[in-house]
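Consider the tokenized backbone below.
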């Protein structure tokens, strides 16, 4: 029997596993702390477990995160890992250091089936869902890498830690609900990463039934990829809108916030020149979200070759933001980070494909990769 990957297990699943190998349930808590809290990479390191148990674990289980294909750090400190998830698929994980926080952006699927017209991941199509181990494995791997860098003093991240996690990389997290939920639980578990639920943000393009489930199961902070103020425009930008149109989506947002009082929804809005950035669109938006506690995050579009779309000018983005702010809506404009290593938010398929061909020449295989724009 092939060894199970313990990164696939949240606390409850780990308890079942230790029972299945004839151990007492409390061993699960010890294991959880070793793996995620103390960052053990092998069972050998787990010094307060009996040698016989460590041997049993080495026989039946493993700790496996996706292999790192590439690790690059931008001039601004943003660090990006390209990770191999098998069958010629790769995903990206990005660490963004800021003065008061360190944010890790992780992927939940290889590719994405939603096919938003402004997103390079969507253009790549859907390959497969990631497992829980591949999702939490990105956090586990990044913690190790950042700790190692701190120890060696490399890459200027010595005083940085991961304080926030955003599920905004490749994929629609709520289309992979069953694997994402245990990963979220691990992020929040005090014996694992112990992050507060407001420091974990899941970004969705509007999977309404799963938004309701999440509100019940694990109400982390929610970001919704809105991108348009009316159904006609959103149908063309986010095809999922045909299934869950705006009024249905906004009703789900209201329910979500009701389930987690004092919270708000972050609406993501990619700024597309001449498409969704007119003053009239801002006015429509203000009316649309009138009774939803929310803030807006405007994302300057990063053009990619086949998109046929352009980024709104800085003046237009600022004017759009001003309209929303004047209506009392907290509005931020996302700062572009990691440009020099293609770690800026999404839409870099062209560049990435070029690099993939490079790796193809070097390693004799192709690994398609693209970034999303939640
Ligand atoms: S924006 Fe998000 S949901 Fe839309 S295609 Fe890209 S990854 Fe998928």
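A designed sequence for it:
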């Amino acid at each position: 029997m092939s060894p199970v990957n313990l990164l696939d297990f949240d606390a409850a699943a780990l308890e079942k596993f230790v029972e299945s190998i004839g151990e007492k349930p409390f061993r699960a808590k010890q294991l959880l702390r070793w793996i995620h809290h103390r960052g053990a990479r092998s069972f050998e390191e787990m010094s307060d477990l009996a040698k016989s148990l460590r041997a049993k674990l080495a026989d039946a289980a493993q700790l496996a995160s996706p292999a790192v294909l590439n690790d690059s750090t931008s001039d601004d400190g943003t660090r990006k890992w390209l990770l191999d998830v098998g069958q010629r698929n790769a995903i990206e994980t990005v660490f963004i250091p800021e003065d008061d926080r360190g944010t890790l952006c992780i992927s939940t699927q290889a590719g994405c089936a939603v096919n938003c017209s402004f997103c390079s991941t969507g253009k790549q199509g859907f390959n497969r869902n990631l497992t829980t181990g591949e999702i939490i494995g990105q956090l586990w791997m990044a913690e190790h890498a950042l700790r190692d860098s701190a120890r060696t003093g490399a890459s200027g991240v010595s005083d940085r830690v991961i304080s926030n996690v955003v599920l905004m990389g490749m994929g629609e997290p709520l289309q992979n609900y069953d694997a994402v939920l245990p990963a979220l639980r691990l992020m929040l578990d005090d014996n694992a990463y112990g992050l507060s639920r407001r420091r974990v943000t899941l970004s969705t393009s509007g999977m309404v039934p799963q938004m309701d489930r999440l509100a019940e199961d694990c109400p982390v902070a929610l970001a919704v990829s809105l991108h348009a103020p009316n159904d006609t425009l959103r149908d063309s930008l986010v095809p999922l809108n045909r299934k869950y149109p705006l009024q249905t989506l906004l009703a789900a947002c209201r329910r979500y916030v009701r389930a987690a009082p004092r919270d708000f929804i972050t609406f993501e809005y990619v700024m597309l020149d001449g498409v969704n950035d007119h003053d009239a669109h801002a006015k429509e938006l203000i009316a649309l979200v009138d009774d939803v506690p929310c803030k807006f995050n405007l994302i300057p579009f990063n053009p990619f070759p086949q998109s046929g779309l352009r980024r709104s000018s800085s003046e237009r983005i600022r004017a759009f933001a001003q309209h929303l702010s004047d209506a009392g809506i907290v509005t931020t404009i996302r700062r572009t980070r990691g440009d020099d290593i293609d770690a800026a938010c999404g839409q870099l398929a062209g560049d990435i494909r070029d690099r993939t061909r490079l790796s193809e020449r070097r390693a004799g295989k192709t690994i398609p990769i693209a970034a999303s724009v939640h």
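Residues 109 and 171 are 4 Å apart (CA to CA).
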